[in-house]
């Protein structure tokens, strides 16, 4: 019985997986903290990009690139 207890206390079989889980938890925590800190500047940058495209495409910000087609007739219109 004493030999079994000693073997269990010195066994390092699960140590690698535990260390891996702790490292992954730290990495996830760092990613969450970093993303929460840079989300404001990213949102501002994207808003500037959207404003720049809106200014180029017109007052309403929508530029029609191609005609929509006749959707009332279904997919048969597109088959030739």
Describe the secondary-structure layout:
Elements: H1 2-10, H2 15-57
Can you walk through the features of this model?
The protein has 80 residues and is mostly helical. It is built from two helices and no strands. It has helices at 2-10, 15-57. The chain is rod-shaped and about 80 Å long. The protein starts with a helix and ends in a 23-residue tail after the last helix.
State the separation between the terminal residues, measured CA to CA: 83 Å
Approximately how much beta-strand content do the residues carry? under 5%
Count of strand segments? 0
* Largest sheet, strands/sense/barrel: none
- Ranges where pLDDT stays below 50 over 5 or more residues in a row are none
In percent, how helical is the residue content?
Answer: 55-70%
Q: Provide the gyration radius in Å.
A: 30 Å
Average pLDDT value?
75
What's the order of the H and E elements? HH
Summarize the structure.
The protein is mostly helical and 80 residues long. The protein is 65% helix and 0% strand. It contains 2 helices and no strands.
Keywords for this entry:
80 residues, mainly alpha, 2 helices, 65% helix, 0% strand
């Amino acid at each position: 019985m004493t030999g079994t207890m000693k073997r269990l206390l010195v066994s390092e079989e699960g140590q690698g997986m535990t260390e891996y889980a702790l490292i992954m938890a730290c990495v996830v925590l760092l990613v969450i903290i970093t993303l929460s800190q840079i989300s404001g500047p990213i949102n501002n940058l994207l808003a500037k990009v959207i404003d720049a495209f809106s200014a180029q495409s017109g007052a309403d910000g929508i530029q029609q690139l191609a005609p929509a087609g006749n959707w009332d007739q279904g997919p048969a219109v597109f088959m030739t």
